Every structure is written in C-alpha cells, then in structure tokens.
Amino acid sequence: MKYAIIIPDGCADEPLEALDGRTPLQAAKLPHTDALAAAGSLGLANNTPAHLPAGSEVANLCLLGYDPDQFFTGRAPLEAAAQGIELGPDDWAVRCNLVTIQDQVMVDFTADHISTEDATELLRAAQENLLADYKGPGRFEFVPGVSYRNLLLYRGEPGQAPPFSAETRTRAPHDLTDCVVSDDFPRGPGSALLQQWMDASEQIFAGHPVNEQRTQRGQRPATHLWLWGLGKAPQLPSFAEKHGVSGVMITAVDLLRGIAALVGWPRIEVPGATGYLDTDYAAKGQAAVKALDQYDLVCVHIEAPDEASHEGRHDAKIEALQQIDQHIVGPLHEALAARGDYRILVTPDHPTPCGTKKHSHGMVPFVIAGSGVAADSQQTYDEIAAAASGRRLDAGWDLMDQFIQHGR
Ligand SMILES: [Zn+2]
C-alpha cells in the first residue's frame, strides 16, 4: 500500500460575499480533488483544540496523528528542529519575526518578506546591542533562519531555573495583522525580558543602514523584533513507530521541516518551492510522484493558500487551490492508482478565512479515497459537502490512524 497526504495550508474558509456566498474551495475548479470526493469519503476534523493556538504548529501535529496536549511544547522548538538545531533539556527556542509596526499597528508580520541577507544583518545588530547586558542564568543567541522567520535560542544551565515556564504566553504576529498591538506583548514568566528586547529593537533598527536601503528601494523597513512561540524540545514517537509506515515530507516551510525531522521523516527539497504564491507547483507534484518509488508515504505541504488568506486575497487563494489540484493532486492520484493499492488524503491543517486574514479554530474538511475506502454520497471537496457527510472528528489526531489502518 502506498499513501499520499496533501496539505493545502489554511485552505478552509467561510462563505464570501464577493464569491456569491461560496467559499474559495467551492468557487475553485478542482476536478481532481472533486473526483476523490466522488470516489471516497469526506468529513470534518478539528486540529485546533480551543485552549491551544490556532496555528500550523498545533494543527499539523494533530493532522499527523499527534495529540497536542501530549506532544505540543511550542512553535519555535519545531523550527529549531528544521534547522538541525539540537535543544538540550534546559534549552528553549523562541521564534523571532522581523516585523513592520507603524503607529502601534502590525502593518506587516513579514517586514515586506525581508531578504535573509537583510534579516541576518539586523539580527547581528540585535545580538550585539540587545543581548550584551543579559547577565544570566544561561545565555541567549539570535539564529538567522529564512527571511522574516528567525530564532532566539536560550541555552540553560542544569539546576538553574530558566526565565520562562509553560505559563509564558505570547501572540503570533500573523494573527495581529492590521491590529493595534500595544496589548499583545508577552505575558507571564520571562515576559518582561522579551518585551524589553522587542521595545529596544525599535531604536536599534530605526537608524540601521539595512532599513535606510530598504526604504530607498521602496520596501517596508523591519521596525521591530517580535518574540513568540517559545518552548522546549518536544519528545515525539516516530511516525513509523506509531503507524508502521515510512514517510517523507515535501515542504518549503521550516515549521513543517521541523515536524518532519521530529517524526523521523526525511525531507525532499524541491527547487522552485518558495512557500509563497509563486511556488513551483508542478515541480512539487513531480517530486512527490518520484518519491513514491522510495517511500510508502509522501506528504506534500503547500503554504500558498495560507499566504493568500493572510493577504485577504480570495482570488489568489482560488488560483493556488486550482494549481494544487492540477499539478499535485492530479498527478499524485494518477501515479498512486497506477501502482496498485493506495490511499490519498487531502486536508488543510486549520482554517484561514480571507475575511479575517487570520488562522482560526474550527473544523476543516478532509477527503480520503483509495483502496478499501467506501464512497459516501458527496461529490465535491469543500466545507459544505464535508459537513453534509455527517462524519466528524472532534479529535483530529484520530484521523491519521483511520486513514492508514482502515481507510476510513
Ligand atoms: Zn497552517
């Protein structure tokens, strides 16, 4: 048996007036995914328990079969794993965005998709100017990642209490777009330290040559650091241990790379995969088809629908969904069917409604098709058809076991 999982990030949405009351999934032309719906089984799954952040970090762990109450420790440690950074038992990782805040409003949580080069220079300035006064315990270090997605690492000392605890609360900057952020700074243990650095970054970045050049080029400056998503390293049993199947991940996003590393999956890096709307969908589809030669399960994650939602662009979201259908779902389904027994699952991690431009809690539609999967009466893949199927998993992490073991 071969398996494929396709994750159009954040594709679940709400009916939109601009689409005559349809959701983007309903408005998009998705012949290949609709064919799976007609042949297979639809349902709704909840990957975002109400007491946890409604983000890709929790939702993708759930989607892959891991109960977040047992396994989720924070977003940043997952991204540290993606970069091959080992966290010891006393260490913490903190996610560090470079953002644009103007007049207290989160104008852009990506600082205009800042280049890795610009980000690295600004973080060097932050390292020299912000962290020099920290007296311990332990030590802090900024680690550049890709673009606006960077890390602040805390290397603790055995027997010394860290500045943070599981009670430390932060807000994800992508959930604050267009909002006044003055009440959204960290809370709880260690929050004063984080806020002090976030505040002080304003002055360090304001006169920095990198920002002067950005402004001259017509790009938004990176005005602040935004620190969030902190945690210690999670301990996950491997996917193979849990499900008896070896898998591989195709994604352009560090978070998903990290989850793959922690569940014991290798990653296939696809040239042209950007994690944005300009990604090379066909290259990802071809890489996924090829991976079936070597692996029992291939998981393809596509960030583009989520990015379109964060920008509130339903047209761009529909276009991304159609590209995924044509270049990834179609070729993968065809390749699987040509090989014999197979199962295929299409599901987003969480909803990201274009109306709010934010990740939200709530059910997402999934479709399973392939060997041993009985057809229900639904003919299309979208939120409304999935609700009409009557199949509903309040614990989304049960879906993976059903998909792998039983096909329903
Ligand atoms: Zn997501």
Written overview of the protein:
The protein folds into two domains: 2-70 and 237-406, Alkaline Phosphatase, subunit A (3-Layer(aba) Sandwich), CATH 3.40.720; 92-231, no CATH class. The protein is α/β, with parallel strands linked by helices and 408 residues long. It has helices at 24-27, 31-39, 56-63, 68-71, 76-82, 116-130, 191-206, 209-216, 239-243, 254-263, 281-291, 304-310, 314-339, 383-388, 399-406; strands spanning 2-8, 41-46, 92-102, 105-108, 139-146, 149-155, 224-231, 247-250, 297-302, 342-346, 363-370, 392-393. It is globular, with a radius of gyration of 21 Å. Bound molecules: zinc ion (ZN). The site of zinc ion has 7 residues, from helix 3. Zinc ion binds next to helix 3.
Task: Give the SSE layout.
Blueprint: E1 2-8, H1 24-27, H2 31-39, E2 41-46, H3 56-63, H4 68-71, H5 76-82, E3 92-102, E4 105-108, H6 116-130, E5 139-146, E6 149-155, H7 191-206, H8 209-216, E7 224-231, H9 239-243, E8 247-250, H10 254-263, H11 281-291, E9 297-302, H12 304-310, H13 314-339, E10 342-346, E11 363-370, H14 383-388, E12 392-393, H15 399-406
Parallel strand pairs: 1-9, 1-10, 2-12, 8-9
Antiparallel strand pairs: 2-11, 3-4, 3-6, 3-7, 5-6, 10-11
The structure holds zinc ion.
Zinc ion is lined by residues 9-10, 56, 59, 306, 349-350.
CATH class of the largest domain: Alpha Beta
Strand element count: 12
* Contiguous uncertain segments of 5+ residues: none
3D shape: globular
Tell me the Rg in angstroms: 21 Å
What's the architecture of the largest domain in CATH terms? 3-Layer(aba) Sandwich
- The CATH superfamily of the largest domain is identified as Alkaline Phosphatase, subunit A
Task: Name the structural class.
Answer: alpha/beta
SSE order, as H and E? EHHEHHHEEHEEHHEHEHHEHHEEHEH
Range of strand content: 15-25%
CATH topology of the largest domain: Alkaline Phosphatase, subunit A
Span of the ends, CA to CA: 15 Å
